[in-house]
Amino acid sequence: MASRQGGPGNDDGPGTGTTERRTAPHAASPETDRGASTARPGSPEPSAAVSENPSRTPPSRGRTPEDPPLRDPGLYALTDHFRERLQQPGRYVSTRTVSDAIRAGQLRWNQTDGWRFAVVRDGIRFVVVVADTDTNSPVVVTAWTEVADRESALKGGRFDPVDVDTIAVRTALSESSSTPVPDRIRPRSITRPFVVGGHRLETEPGDPHVRCVDCGCRFRSKSAITARSCRGGRRGR
Fold first, then answer.
1. φ/ψ of residue 96, rounded to 5
2. pLDDT tens digit string along 42-89?
3. Residues contacting 133, CB < 8 A, separation 6+
4. Calpha distance 133→46 (Å, rounded)
C-alpha cells in the first residue's frame, strides 16, 4: 500500500524529517532479506534531472519490469513499509537520501526485489528499492544502509562508531537470516539499541550475540530474533 503524501520529493537541503536518524529507543517495522545485485544491461547513466511538479502522475502504460525506473524522485510515492522504516531505530534512511539515490545513484537489477538505486555517502551505502509497473505510480518499496568503507565512515563525521557498528551488524543479520553470524557480531559495540522483530538489540565487544534489552534474550541470527516474540521484563535465554 502506498501513499503519495510525503514522497521523497526534490528537497536536497536539511529539514524536518529529512536527515538520517540515529538509533532511537522505540520503533519497529518488518524487514526484508537482501540478495546479491548484478548489473543489468542497458542501465542508464546517473542523471541530475529533478521534477518541478512532484504531484503529477507519470505515464506507466507500456512499461515492463525490465524497463529502467524513472530518475525523478518527485514522482515516487512511499509505501507504508518504507514509512515504517523511516521511524525504525538503526535504519539511517531518510527521504533526502532516497531522493539522492534516485537522481544520481548507481542502478542495478536484483532478481529478488527488482530495481535498486545505490549511492555512497561518507563511507555508507544507501540502497533504495523501487517499483513502477505494478502500481498506479512509481513507489519506494524499501531502503537500507550498508558499510561501504568503514574507515571513511568513521572519519566522515556523519556517523559515529555506534552508528557504523549498528549498520554492520544489521547487514550481517539480514544477508542470510537463518545463518548464525557470531564472528561478525563479536567485534561490534552497540550501546544504542536497534530494533528487529520487536526486540531492541545491543551488543558488547567480544559477545557472539545481540541481546534484547527488554526481555534479555540472546540471538546469533535474524531468524532466531523474528521467531521469538519479545516479552519485556522477562529474562530469556
1. -65, -45
2. 332 333 322 333 445 455 556 677 788 999 999 999 999 899 888 788
3. 60, 63, 64, 65, 67
4. 21
